[in-house]
Automatic annotation (TrEMBL), chain A:
It comes from Roseicyclus persicicus. Keywords: Amino-acid transport, ATP-binding, Nucleotide-binding, Transport. InterPro entries: AAA+_ATPase, ABC_transporter-like_ATP-bd, ABC_transporter-like_CS, BCAA_Transport_ATP-bd_LivF, P-loop_NTPase. Signal peptide: none annotated. GO terms for molecular function: ATP binding; ATP hydrolysis activity; branched-chain amino acid transmembrane transporter activity. This is ABC transporter ATP-binding protein. It comes from the Bacteria.
TrEMBL record, chain B:
This is Branched-chain amino acid ABC transporter permease. InterPro entries: ABC_transp_permease, BCAA_transport_permease. GO terms for biological process: amino acid transport. One of its GO terms (molecular function) is transmembrane transporter activity. It holds the Pfam family BPD_transp_2. It is a multi-pass membrane protein. Keywords: Amino-acid transport, Cell membrane, Membrane, Transmembrane, Transmembrane helix, Transport. The chain crosses the membrane at residues 21-43, 63-86, 98-116, 142-163, 191-214, 220-240, 252-279. PANTHER family: ABC TRANSPORTER ATP-BINDING PROTEIN, BRANCHED-CHAIN AMINO ACID TRANSPORT SYSTEM PERMEASE PROTEIN LIVH. One of its GO terms (cellular component) is plasma membrane. It comes from Roseicyclus persicicus. The keyword Transmembrane applies.
């Protein structure tokens, strides 16, 4: 459904991706693993149009992806960034409503009530400001906000980073629910156990290229790959 | 004189009147900057343009029509500026933006000279507002009171829109983080365009309501630019609260400085600006904490 072919990208003068290719399949979870600085977050930012693509092509559902983040979001991709990027000047409710605005109309799958069912904690925090949330709550809100866009593809950048184990477990269970409901996802993660237990497919990125791809079971069994590319 | 309560009342009203005028100018500039990190130095020239349009229309169409049409005319100029220049300058960095919009000041200045000449224009106020009003023991010009009420009403309206409406939430989200706002499917570019036009209209309105108080000259835009920039630097970029706080501080320091310590008046506001920059370099109420 999402196809990256020989994509090059980077920040300013610094090139990070060197002809990276990967495929995310409909209804499956693709985990993107790799060490710090390998180019995982850069890959997601390039997909979202937040970084300019210098080479290669990206197609989404068979069509070339739009250039601007606004159009890419409109085409059905929701992004949960590593920094969560909750709007501090907005309340929790406003953070959610702003995502539901365009995509949460009649007949939409995800509604405000449904994301609150998924993350009851957010229901208790509706009137709080975005700056008043704990890290775990911010992550829940970032995922809920993404879901309210009723995306066909959800891309998540290190959703477990900096969270307590109990929250990591909760996020894992919720993402598993979403996976079982058939939502397509691309998941960038440092947490090997978390990622391989959720994923259907795994790619490993190093120095801006995909260096390994296979199944979660295969990478769990292959200590040489883990050691060489992930430092596990 | 300073023991007299009416002195304080009178100067407070004068300070409020100056504050409200500055607020109308600074709110557009500061939100445009906060939303898109765009520096528009030509904002003052739009104020002058508002005054010219209003002064011209007032003679034929009357005061109220002039006050209504001048902001629309200036907003229209804003649309042209946006389409022709500003949209292309969005990603070109502050230095290029400052240079181009600074050049725009002179282009607009000469445009007003060509269209209206070098002589100062006068605009008369409507009969209902030309008298004095007795208020809290002082007799105060009704027209200045009208400016205070208008500024306060616009502040209230903007506060309501920003706090309670969806477009307000979108603007706040865009100021917080424009990249993430775009990733949620918000057309930040169009939002910026709308905010830019409203900012231009408010600058035009400020010029229009100021016209009967001042003589309308080509240089008035340049004169108001520095106070407006001081207001948004003191208040903090991007926020309504900063714009109103900065405007009130400037208005009161300037007005009371001029009557209580005339020899210090011209440096007082700069000293305050320097103090704010030392203690809180981002200003008092910046949109981004």
């Amino acid at each position: 459904m999402l196809d990256l072919d020989a994509v090059s990208s980077g920040y300013g003068e610094t090139q990070v991706l060197y002809g990276l290719s990967l495929k995310a399949q409909q209804g499956r979870v693709l985990a993107v693993l790799g060490r710090n600085g390998a180019g995982k977050s850069t890959t997601l930012k390039t997909i979202m149009g937040l970084l300019p693509r210098r080479g290669g092509s990206i197609t989404f559902e068979g069509r070339p992806i739009a250039a601007r983040p606004f159009d890419i979001a409109q085409s059905g991709i929701a992004y949960v960034p590593e920094t969560r990027d909750i709007f501090p000047s907005l309340t929790v409710r406003e953070n959610l409503e702003i995502a539901a605005r365009r995509f949460g109309g009649k007949g939409a799958d995800w509604t405000l009530d449904r994301v609150v069912d998924l993350f009851p904690r957010l229901g208790e925090r509706m009137r709080n400001g975005g700056a008043e949330l704990s890290g775990g709550e911010q992550q829940m809100l970032a995922i809920a906000r993404g879901l309210l866009m009723n995306p066909r593809l959800l891309i998540l950048d290190e959703p477990t980073e900096g969270l307590a184990p109990i929250i990591v477990k909760l996020i894992h269970d919720k993402l598993m629910e979403l996976k079982q409901a058939g939502l397509s996802m691309v998941l960038v993660e440092q947490n090997f156990g978390f990622a391989t237990s959720l994923a259907d497919d795994v790619v490993v990125v190093s120095k801006g290229q995909v260096v390994w791809s296979g199944s979660p079971a295969a990478i769990r069994a292959d200590e040489a790959v883990q050691h060489r590319w992930l430092g596990v | 004189m300073t023991q007299d309560l009416s002195f304080w009342t009178l100067q407070t009203l004068n300070a409020l009147q100056l504050s409200m005028l500055l607020f109308l100018l600074s709110i557009g500039l500061t939100v445009i900057f906060g939303l898109m990190h765009f520096v528009n130095l030509a904002h003052g020239a739009l104020y002058a343009l508002g005054a010219y349009i209003a002064a011209t229309l007032a003679g034929t169409a009357g005061f109220w029509a002039a006050i209504l049409l001048a902001p629309l005319g200036v907003a229209l100029v804003g649309v042209v500026l946006y389409g022709g220049l500003i949209r292309r300058m969005r990603k070109s960095g502050p230095m290029a933006q400052v240079l181009v919009t600074f050049g725009l000041i002179f282009a607009l200045l000469d445009l007003t000279r060509i269209l209206w000449g070098d002589l100062a224009l006068a605009m008369s106020m409507p009969a209902v507002l030309s008298g004095q009003v007795d208020l809290l023991g002082v007799s105060y010009p009704a027209y200045r009171l009208f400016i205070i009420v208008l500024g306060a009403a616009i502040f209230a309206a903007l506060a309501l829109v920003l706090a309670r409406t969806q477009i307000g939430a979108m603007i706040r989200a865009g100021v917080d983080n424009d990249a993430m706002a775009a990733c949620l499917g918000i057309n930040v570019e169009r939002l910026f365009f709308v905010v830019f036009c409203v900012g231009c209209a408010l600058a035009g309105l400020a010029g229009a309501v100021a016209a009967p108080l001042l003589s309308v000259t080509p240089g008035m835009g340049l004169q108001i630019l520095i106070p407006t920039l001081i207001v948004i630097v003191i208040g903090g970029l991007g926020s309504l609260k900063g714009a109103i706080a900065g405007s009130l501080i400037y208005g009161f320091v300037q007005t009371f400085g001029a009557v209580l310590a005339p020899q210090l008046a011209s440096v007082l506001i700069y000293a305050l600006l320097a103090a704010v920059l030392v203690i809180k370099p981002v200003g008092l109420f910046p949109a981004k904490g």
